[in-house]
C-alpha cells in the first residue's frame, strides 16, 4: 500500500513518523514523504529611498530555507533507509500558503491509499488541538487519514 | 498494540472495520470493538390527563434498542472470529455523548489507536465528517484513523 506521510520540521511530525513505523507500517508499504515547502519571506523592495536591491539578504534567506528543507529531507530519508523502507520524497513547490491542498494533490498523483500526519505542526497557534492543515486534509481527503496527536 | 474500533450499525462502520483489518491490522493487535449507544428517548409521562404509565410503549422501545445492540454485537463477534482477531466486544448504552464515551473507553482499555468511520447513522448525510468522529479527532490522546469509504 502506498502511504503518504506529511511532515514539517516539527517534533510532532517526527514522533508521528516513529509511531507509524512501529505500529502501523507493513513491509509491503511504500512511503511517499511530502513536505509542502513554503517559499520563505523575502524582504519587499522599498523604492522610496532608491534603496539597492537587497540581493545579499535574499540569497542568505533562500540558502537558509533550502538548508532547512535539505535537513528535513535527510532526516526522514535516513530513518527510512535505516529500516529498509521503500520510500520517495516529494518536495512540492505547490501553493506555499496551502499545504493542505498540496498534500492532497500529491496523494492523488501518487495514488496513495492512506495519509498519516501529526495533528499540529509548526503553526503559530499552539493552543489548538487540531491544526489547520490536518483539519483541511481530514475534511477533504478521499482516502483514510491517520492523525497523530501531540 | 491495542486498537479501539468505534462502530455503529452503518455500512461505513463496517467498511472502516474491514479496511482496518485488510491494511493496518498486525497479528498480535488486540481489537476492542465498541459502540456507545445513546439512551433512547423514552416517552415522558403525562400526568395531566391522568394518563396511564405507557409501559407497553416503553417496553417496546427498550426491546428494540436491546435488539439492535445484540445484532451489532453478533455482527462484529462473527467478523472478529472469522478474521481470527484477538477481540473484545463492548456494546453499551451510555449517558454521555458518544464522542465523549468513546474517548473515555479508549483511555479505560489503554488503546493505542482509535479507528472509526467518517459518518454514521446521523441524520445529516451531507456532512463530510460526522459530529462523533469530529469530537474524537479533536479530543483523543492517541492517533485516530478516520476511514473514508471508497465510494464517498
UniProtKB/TrEMBL annotation, chain A:
Recorded superkingdom: Eukaryota
Limits of the UspA domain: 2-149
UniProt cross-references to InterPro entries, sorted A to Z: Rossmann-like_a/b/a_fold, Universal_stress_UspA, UspA
Protein name: UspA domain-containing protein
Species for this entry: Clavelina lepadiformis
Upper classification of the organism: Eukaryota, Metazoa, Chordata, Tunicata, Ascidiacea
Automatic annotation (TrEMBL), chain B:
Source lineage: Eukaryota, Metazoa, Chordata, Tunicata, Ascidiacea
Source organism of the structure: Clavelina lepadiformis (Light-bulb sea squirt)
Entry's transmembrane regions: none
Name of the protein in its database record: UspA domain-containing protein
Start and end residues of each UspA domain: 2-148
Gene3D superfamilies in the record: HUPs
InterPro entries, per the entry: Rossmann-like_a/b/a_fold, Universal_stress_UspA, UspA
Amino acid at each position: 500500500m502506498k502511504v503518504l506521510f506529511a511532515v514539517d520540521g516539527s517534533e510532532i511530525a517526527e514522533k508521528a513518523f516513529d509511531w507509524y513505523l512501529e505500529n502501523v507500517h507493513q513491509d509491503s508499504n511504500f512511503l511517499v514523504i511530502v513536505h509542502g515547502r513554503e517559499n520563505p519571506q523575502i524582504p519587499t523592495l522599498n523604492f522610496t529611498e532608491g534603496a539597492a536591491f537587497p540581493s545579499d539578504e535574499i540569497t542568505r534567506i533562500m540558502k537558509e530555507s533550502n538548508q532547512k528543507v535539505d535537513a528535513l529531507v535527510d532526516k526522514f530519508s535516513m530513518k527510512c533507509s535505516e529500516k529498509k523502507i521503500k520510500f520517495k520524497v516529494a518536495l512540492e513547490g505547490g501553493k506555499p500558503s496551502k499545504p493542505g491542498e498540496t498534500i492532497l494533490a500529491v496523494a492523488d498523483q501518487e495514488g496513495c491509499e492512506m495519509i498519516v500526519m501529526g495533528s499540529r505542526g509548526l503553526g503559530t497557534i499552539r493552543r489548538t488541538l487540531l491544526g489547520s492543515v490536518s483539519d483541511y486534509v481530514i475534511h477533504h481527503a478521499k482516502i483514510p487519514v491517520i492523525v497523530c496527536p501531540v | 498494540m491495542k486498537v479501539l474500533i468505534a462502530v455503529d450499525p452503518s455500512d461505513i462502520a463496517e467498511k472502516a472495520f474491514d479496511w482496518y483489518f485488510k491494511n493496518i491490522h498486525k497479528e498480535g493487535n488486540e481489537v476492542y470493538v465498541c459502540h456507545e449507544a445513546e439512551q433512547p428517548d423514552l416517552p415522558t409521562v403525562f400526568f395531566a390527563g391522568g394518563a396511564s404509565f405507557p409501559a407497553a410503549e416503553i417496553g417496546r422501545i427498550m426491546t428494540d434498542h436491546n435488539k439492535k445492540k445484540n445484532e451489532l454485537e453478533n455482527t462484529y463477534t462473527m467478523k472478529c472470529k472469522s478474521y481470527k482477531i484477538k477481540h473484545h466486544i463492548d456494546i453499551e448504552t451510555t449517558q454521555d455523548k458518544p464522542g465523549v464515551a468513546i474517548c473515555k473507553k479508549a483511555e479505560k482499555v489503554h488503546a493505542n489507536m482509535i479507528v472509526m468511520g467518517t459518518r454514521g447513522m446521523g441524520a445529516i448525510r451531507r456532512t463530510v465528517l460526522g459530529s462523533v468522529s469530529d469530537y474524537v479527532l479533536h479530543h483523543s490522546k492517541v492517533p485516530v484513523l478516520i476511514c473514508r469509504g471508497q465510494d464517498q
